[in-house]
Amino acid sequence: MSAILPFTEANSKRVASLFRKALRTAFDSTYKFEVYRAETIKIRQQIEVNKHISDPIELQEAIGKFEAKLAEFKHPDPYVAPSRPGGSKYQRNIPVEREPLVPGDW
Length: 106
Fold this sequence. Notes:
Layout: H1 9-29, H2 33-49, H3 56-73
């Protein structure tokens, strides 16, 4: 991936996307809200530490380290909402196709 210049909209979107992925990864690992909240604060602090970086190469390295850490902590069985694809309720009660009750052309 090419280097992204710091303080641009593309960089902000990339960091925000990584932050959301990190929050989902933390949620998959912890089901108690207190523990999850503590983890989110740690994740936010890790991102805030690198907020000042203005060198594109150094920024790319910091983002690469963060992505590697995300891959390391990826949960083997992530949480999937029950009604989403892959969830336990997904397409459980598919509506039955109804035929006319009385045959014939009325």
